[in-house]
Amino acid sequence: xxxxxxxxxxxxxxxxxxxxxxxxxxxxxxxxxxxxxxxxxxxxxxxxxxxxxxxxxxxxxxxxxxxxxxxxxxxxxxxxxxxxxxxxxxxxxxxxxxxxxxxxxxxxxxxxxxxxxxxxx
Length: 121
What we know:
Residues 32-107 form the Carboxymuconolactone decarboxylase-like domain. The chain has 121 residues and is an all-alpha fold. It folds into two domains: 1-42, no CATH class; 44-120, AhpD-like, CATH 1.20.1290.10.
């Protein structure tokens, strides 16, 4: 399975079409270099890479991409608790406003997935 398929799941085609619509060459760099070379390297598992991506995207203030990687982290094996802890940890270094925005976005991702939140059910 490709890294993109593992992270993007059933949204792979839609994400790829969206990226192609912006710029075909940029899409190719993202697909080939970012996903199929860097993210596919040995040394870190995809779950760890996705948790690191979450932190970086919180720092950059990129909510659309953050939502993709919040969902991707869950797809590749991160638990809701691990994602929440990653967001909480980011508050120390990136600030509480960014962590709060990320946590709200994560709640939306969970709601859209139809997953019960920790402590529910």
